[in-house]
Amino acid sequence: MAATDHLVIFDTTLRDGEQSPGATMNKAEKLRIAKALEKLRVDVIEAGFAIASQGDFDAVKQIAENIRESTVCSLARALDNDIDRAAEAIRPAERARIHTFIATSPIHMKHKLQMEPDEVVEQAVRAVKRARSHVDDVEFSCEDAGRSELDFLCRIIEAAIDAGARTINIPDTVGYAIPEQFGETIFQIMNRVPNADKAIFSVHCHNDLGLAVANSLAAVTRGARQVECTINGLGERAGNAALEEIVMAVRTRQDLFNIDTRIDTQHIVPASRLVSTITGFPVQPNKAIVGANAFAHESGIHQDGVLKHRETYEIMRAQDVGWHTNSLVLGKHSGRNAFRTRLLELGIQFETETELNEAFTRFKALADLKHEIFDEDLQAIASDTRQKEEEGPYGLACMQVCSETGVVPKASLTLTVEGKEHKVEAEGSGPVDATFKAIESLVDSGCNLQLYSVNAITSGTDAQGEVTVRLERGGRIVNGVGADTDIIIASAKAYIEALNLISRGGIRQHPQVADV
Questions:
Q1: Annotation-wise, does 302 bind a ligand?
Q2: Which pLDDT score, from 0 to 100, does residue 515 have?
Q3: Residue 16 annotated as binding site
Q4: Is 197 labeled as ligand-binding?
Q5: Is residue 363 over pLDDT 90?
């Protein structure tokens, strides 16, 4: 195995994480997350799938232009056009990587690729060589390796390394593997491939059976030295291995893992909250490391033990992963300079003074409603301001909602459509239902409401509520997010944002659909 003095963390939140239904991010949001990942000291940031769309290409290129401490990577199928497009997008990067892949399982080769094994090996070699003509750092993945035949894996991996691949990734694409078996697969590959010492071996595990982290760690114990993961475990279907769980498991159990990561763990919670705010995917309270209850103790016995000696019931310190590390709490008396400074510390930078002024105005308005403004509030303000960049046809001018015991709730709204105001009203089973029905009475979107979720951004009764609305139309799924101290207003904002996303259209090409 190629030498590495640490476990390489390859974050794919911006690529695989974005493939969660409704988790699509715009260019500005992707750059914010990329900067948070750089602050985390992530080794490799998979910035996107450059050929999927012009938006993906632009986002990858912008990240390549702005990130200097992490390697910037673009995914590419084993196709010339994919590889050339990826190379073009990452060209400005200080450190650049092309990640190319092809399916290797019998079921994928027969039914998806419709290729013979010899053809697949030939295509893989050609792809790696083409990628190496652009960059020195090339990663090759065997898609659906978890269901591939071991002999064929060894054959194609040996050929890929000979062609110039520096990293070999073994993905459990469909979450089929079991830890002991997956670890043994990694061990066998690394011992049977003659030139295995010339590459770093990597794993990319999905969570369909809830084993993504366990499988990844099993692979590390058997020699893997790169783990591909996402913030909050975001990703397709049941998600990916969670970065925060991988990092803290390895760091906490140094008695079992003789290697550590370079991650600055104090930035884990801020990164988690940023991704949650931007994607509209709330973190469950009992989520390991970053959930609200991760370091909470209700049992009297547990509380007593922790008070006497923390390590009786806590194997990590909350501060080490970023809980309660906000050094500056803003309020209504805070000035523009303090506001700007804190935004910069959070990796938020507006391109124009107009955007900054708008965000500052929103901050002051919120400060009049809340005693203290926390980092999570600032992230929500930034997201709300950024939405103005890609506004759709719909907007909320004002609204009034009546909800009274024994009276049918009623919502009256003034909406803007292409800048023109329209007054609408409707009754419903509750204030939110009435609000959505009022909006639909004008828009008639034909969308199906798949998810309505409310999450408090911070603690306290004056906290902003963050509402996520998931809409589906014609097979396309989007998430709209709205934040406000008034949950009904936040709900209206979220619904309208989702409608604007639906109205924009645009289909991303899925990286697992390969026309070869």
A1: no
A2: 41
A3: yes
A4: no
A5: no
